[in-house]
Amino acid sequence: MQRRMNIPFAVRQMALAVALATSATQAAASLTADGRLDVLGPGGYTLGYTIGFLDQNKNFIGNGKLYFGEDATGQFLYFQMPLGFVDNTYGTNASADWTKGHTFSDLLGSDALGATKVANFQWTDAKGTNKVEIDYISDCGNAGVCSKSGYLSAGVGPEGVGGAGSNGQSWGNEGDVVSGSAANILNIATSLEYDLNNVDSTATTNSPNLALTPNWIKEVGYEIQFAPGTFSAADWADPAKAASLISLGSAHVSPPKGANFASFQPPVCEFGCSPGSGVTGVPEPGTFWLMGAALTGLGWYARRRKENRGPDALCGLVPS
Fold it and tell me: Measured between alpha carbons, how far is 61 from 51 in angstroms, rounded to an integer?
């Protein structure tokens, strides 16, 4: 006769609540090109690098983040710049390291990825190589008409081609298709676009006080959704190949915070690195939702133990 373990009711209730919350989070996990970095792990971004990139003056900038993910709606890319280079704070609430100040107009004016005068954002598909410049944020018209705030990334075209919520207006922006075609880009959004349309639509002079509005995304990020099948699915998920499928080009920010230069280094896989792939790296706790990742990893580990297998495949999932 087996002895029943007597677990206090409160502990059982807490365990059930955690399990239900985790299941709900995992069930809801999906990729959406809205400018916010989605969950890292199953159902979200599954591969991530630390990467260097060029600024508008051809300086190498270190500690950028580049994430890859895929679902039935497309192949997703998220590029995030380091806070020591630029951020989404401005006006009276600008970060202290903006020693000369930072305004909303600075971000609105000429910020872009793949700046035409230096190096474009590039990718190669079945039809050839494509070169574009991606606008960061633009005035797209009256608030509530083209968006809640009246501001969106205009994507890669003068009328918001590739930009969420395009309404056919000619908006002042830096988006451009330099050569090839952007037909495979289904959507483009940026972190400031997300902030203005989901967190605080009135923050067009001063960014919010982060102590009072902690969900304001401080990092400058670009999110791109390519059509399904634009790239080989195997290559898109391969730590040794994915980063070579696109070229970020140069990032124009006006102005940068100051010198944040680094010598060029190849991309280093930091998240989702498969053992034996030849690409090394360990996850950084600050780059993904630890609780969900840890619970998922522990559950997986328990199942593996039950099947009498080793825990080797945990490498790259849960931080040590």
Answer: 9
Query: What is the predicted pLDDT for the residue at 158?
Result: 58
* DSSP assignment of 147-189: BSSSEE--TTSTT-TTBTT--S-------EEEES--TTEEEEE
Element (H, E) at 277: none
Residue 74's φ and ψ, nearest 5 degrees, are 155, -175
Task: Kindly indicate the confidence band of residue 146, based on its pLDDT and cuts at 50, 70 and 90.
Answer: confident
What's the CA gap between 126 and 231, in Å, rounded? Answer: 9
Give just the sign of the alpha carbon dihedral 271, 274, 277, 278: positive
What the block records as the tokens of 295 is 């619970």
Global pTM? 0.76
User: Strand runs (DSSP E) across the chain, as ranges?
Assistant: 45-55, 60-71, 74-80, 112-113, 121-125, 128-135, 138-139, 151-152, 176-179, 185-190, 221-226, 246-247, 250-252, 268-271
For 106, other C-beta atoms within 10 Å of its C-beta total 17
Does residue 64 contact residue 81 with C-beta atoms inside 8 Å?
yes
pLDDT in tens, 27-50: 445 899 999 998 898 889 999 999
How does the average pLDDT of the chain come out, rounded?
Answer: 78
